[in-house]
Amino acid sequence: MSSKLQKLLSALCVLMILGGCATIEGAGEDIENAGEEVQDAADS
Fold first, then answer.
1. What is the DSSP letter of 1?
2. SS3 assignment, position 2
3. Distance between CA 30 and CA 24 in Å, rounded?
4. pLDDT-derived band at 1, boundaries 50, 70, 90
5. Which of 5, 10, 24, 27 is at a distance of 20 to 30 A from 38, taking alpha carbons?
6. Is the dihedral of CA 35, 39, 42, 44 positive or negative?
7. Rounded distance between C-alpha atoms, residue 34 and residue 13, angstroms
């Protein structure tokens, strides 16, 4: 495999991993917000 192709594939893999982390972080925030809403409703 050529060096340029290896670098390109490596860069794409890094971008996919970083994009996945951002997605998981966003999902975690959504779940946390939903949990807080349920807790607030239970306290009322």
1. -
2. coil
3. 10
4. low
5. 24
6. negative
7. 32
- Give per-residue burial for 20-43: e unless 16+ CB within 10 Å, then b: eeeeeeeeeeeeeeeeeeeeeeee
User: In whole angstroms, what is the distance from residue 25 CA to residue 39 CA?
Assistant: 21
Reported as a single tens digit per residue, the pLDDT across 9-24 is 899 888 887 777 777 7
Report d(CA 13, CA 23) in Å as an integer. 15
Helix locations, 1-44, DSSP H: 3-43
Phi, psi of 2 (to 5 degrees): -75, 155
